[in-house]
Design brief:
The chain is an alpha/beta fold and 235 residues long. 28% of the residues lie in helices and 23% in strands. The chain has a seven-stranded mixed β-sheet with strand order 3-2-1-4-7-13-14, with helices on both faces. The protein has a four-stranded antiparallel β-sheet with strand order 9-10-8-11, covered by helices on one side. The mean pLDDT is 96. Belongs to the ribose 5-phosphate isomerase family.
Length: 235
């Protein structure tokens, strides 16, 4: 099973880079997650890799850029990108996304919003008819730490069925701390009928930094299938 998924991720990542990487790119966004490992690997194989700079979305992608011999820059230095590649936790047919399973959603959204073109790479498990159906852990929401009790109450009023303050797991007692020193809430709304409206409602809550709902941002999505094929979704 694992090898099938890894093969699917690699196929999608390589095809996405091969078909979309601009020949004269100057600034490129590299996202986070298990599929983006192969994106960075493929970009690292380009012969002109000394001619562009790569912008990370977090600590992991910074390491990917360095490990693949690519030039590292920051979003502060380069606020306009030619293209960005990133993974997703769930993608619907409109190319709206849920992201943030890896806790980097704010910086991922910042880089995606700064890019002229945003390409998603994923495996077949991330394809969905409607957001919230396949990714059942909930919409990741980055919040200012002392707002979590209030935001939790607000999310219940918006219809969240289950709300968790994401915990650090075995290696850390207490909540996950993002790269921006914030907390993460995962709020399960079930099937999300109107992702744009829900994003706007959550974003307006005092204490919310950003939501993991990426609305009308992706231009293309590449999915590695179990069969070894790559499916491409476009707008």
């Amino acid at each position: 099973m694992a090898s099938t998924v890894e093969t699917a991720k690699k196929l999608a990542a390589y095809k996405a880079v091969d078909e979309n990487f601009p020949t004269n790119a100057k600034v490129v966004g590299i996202g986070s997650g298990s599929t983006v490992i192969y994106v960075a690997e493929r970009i690292g194989q380009l012969t002109n890799k000394d001619q562009f700079v790569c912008i990370p979305t977090g600590f992991q992608s910074k390491q990917l850029i360095i490990d693949n011999g690519l030039k590292l820059g920051s979003i502060e230095q380069y606020p306009q990108l030619d293209i960005a590649f990133d993974g997703a936790d769930e993608v619907d047919p409109q190319l709206d996304l849920i992201k943030g399973g890896g806790a980097c959603l704010f910086q991922e959204k910042l880089v995606a919003a700064a890019a002229d073109k945003f390409v998603v790479v994923a495996d077949y498990r991330k394809e969905s008819k409607i957001l919230g159906r396949e990714w059942t852990q909930g919409v990741p929401i980055e919040i200012v730490p002392n707002s979590y009790a209030k935001v939790t109450n607000d999310l219940k009023k918006l219809g969240a069925k289950k709300i968790d303050l994401r915990q650090g797991g075995k290696a850390k007692a207490g909540p996950v701390i993002t790269d921006n020193n914030n907390f993460l809430i995962d709020a399960d709304f079930g099937d999300i009928q109107d992702a744009k409206k829900l994003h706007e409602q959550i974003k307006l809550l005092v204490g919310v930094v950003e939501t993991g709902l990426f609305i009308n941002m992706a231009d293309k999505a590449y999915f590695g299938e179990e069969s070894g094929e790559v499916t491409v979704w476009t707008k």
